[in-house]
Write a structure and sequence with these properties.
Blueprint: H1 16-25, H2 34-47, E1 51-55, H3 58-68, E2 76-80, H4 89-93, E3 97-101, H5 112-124, E4 131-135, H6 144-154, E5 157-161, E6 169-170, E7 181-185, E8 198-202, H7 205-215, H8 238-248, H9 251-269, E9 275-277, E10 284-285, E11 291-295, H10 305-314, E12 320-321, E13 336-338, H11 342-349, E14 350-353, H12 361-373
Parallel strand pairs: 2-3, 2-4, 3-13, 4-5, 5-7
Antiparallel strand pairs: 1-8, 6-10, 7-8, 9-11, 11-14, 12-14
Helix pairs in contact: 1-8, 2-8, 5-6
Bound molecules: pyridoxal-5'-phosphate.
Pyridoxal-5'-phosphate binds next to helix 3.
Length: about 375
């Protein structure tokens, strides 16, 4: 078997271990310490968010954002339907009800028209949504100006799920700093990783302090252990944060590598009828976390994205269908949905190609060989 080519694997820059070593040498082996503080500062400086809390996962950050947005059992919360389940699960953790919003074709992210329709419709039914989890999928920023204006008009708390979009920009600013809250993920497959981790961003100092309090078991200030609220164990370890500090040193380099790989695919596949890429609208810069193609079998002599995926799998090359929309997931059956079915078509036709910054020239050739064997390119 040839060595596996990954979709997106961890790629250390080299300095990570120095931060981890320092944590060992100073015995800061705990979910607090100098690396946690330093990583939070790095994230603030990079994103422009006034405050950041380093947490155990992006999912934990979303959960805390919902709590800080006062989302309670029975509340309605809007969420992009075209996403990974971690965007929507915390709504259910709170006993709230997800309302899924369809994408638009230019960014594959939530359509402002369906956001407006959902909010006005829910208000009419006396079920005004408390918050909106807006996802920037595969690194492409959503239409932030339009969506923020709608949320502001109706006073719906905007929470940006920028788990896949660290390093992207929208009109010169980083996704995650437009809403009341933004979340990031440093899971193993993301553009940078802490082996597992996340962060909550906000310009509201009090809210981030509250997030840190809730993330450390909600301990009241007292010499004994005293609690007047339910807390969580959601803080990031000082070891993981050390990896994060090292990764921040190479983040811009990783973005450049991901973008170059995307350009390479575009050049190689540009002439193939039936294969298309998502372009960046003016003012949108994607980190191109994963390069995605749409495959239209009507123009590829009947070849589907699944045919390409299976041909890759045979060669030990990891490719994956685009996210299956949340409104089609068995676990969210019966949830409300506003849309026209676009994400279902994207799911049917879409494929994520290997987008690993560790990729080597000979591995790129193995990927091209699959497209050649399928007679898509010569
Ligand atoms: C990875 C991811 C998350 C969850 O982050 P974790 O750190 O794995 O909990 C949330 N939303 C999206 C869109 C993601 O891709």
């Amino acid at each position: 078997m040839k060595p596996k080519i990954y979709l997106s694997s961890p790629n250390m820059g080299g300095k990570e271990f120095e931060f981890v070593k320092e944590a060992f040498e100073t015995n800061w082996i705990a979910p607090l310490g100098p690396n946690v503080n330093g990583f939070e500062e790095d994230l603030q400086n990079y994103t422009g968010a006034a405050h950041a809390a380093a947490l155990s996962a992006g999912t934990a950050a979303l959960h805390l954002a919902l709590i800080l947005a006062d989302v309670k059992a029975g509340d309605h919360v809007l969420c992009s339907t075209f996403t990974f389940s971690a965007s929507a699960n915390p709504i259910v953790y709170q006993g709230a009800l997800p309302v899924f919003i369809e994408s638009e074709a230019e960014t594959w992210n939530a359509s402002p028209a369906f956001v407006e329709q959902a909010i006005t419709d829910l208000i009419q039914q006396g079920k005004k949504p408390k918050a909106f989890i807006l996802v920037h999928l595969y690194g492409m920023p959503a239409k932030l100006d339009e969506i923020k204006a709608i949320c502001d008009k109706h006073q719906v708390t905007l929470i940006e799920d920028a788990a896949e979009a660290l390093g992207s920009s929208y009109k010169g600013r980083r996704p995650g700093v437009f809403g009341a809250f933004g979340i990031l993920s440093f899971n193993g497959n993301k553009i940078i990783t802490t082996s597992g981790g996340g962060a909550l961003l906000s310009n509201d100092k009090v809210k981030i302090e509250k997030a840190r309090f809730l993330a450390t078991q909600a301990r009241d200030p007292a010499p004994h252990y005293q609690h007047s609220e339910i807390g969580f164990n959601y803080r990031m370890s000082n070891i993981c944060a050390g990896i994060g500090r090292g990764q921040m040193l190479v983040l811009d380099q990783r973005v450049a590598e991901k973008r170059a790989l995307h350009e390479w695919y575009v050049t190689q596949l540009a002439q193939v009828p039936g294969i298309t890429f998502l372009e960046e609208p003016e003012g949108f810069v994607s980190n191109r976390w994963l390069t995605c193609i749409l495959v239209n079998p009507a123009l590829t002599n009947g070849l589907s994205r699944e045919d390409i995926r299976l041909a890759m799998e045979k060669e030990n090359i990891e490719a994956r269908p685009l996210w299956k929309p949340m409104h089609l997931q068995p676990v969210f059956q019966g949830s409300s949905y506003y849309g026209d079915g676009l994400s279902e078509r994207l799911f049917d036709q879409g494929l994520c190609l290997p987008s690993d910054t560790n990729i080597r020239e000979e591995e790129k050739n193995r990927i091209l060989a699959v497209f050649k064997a399928l007679n898509l390119i010569r």
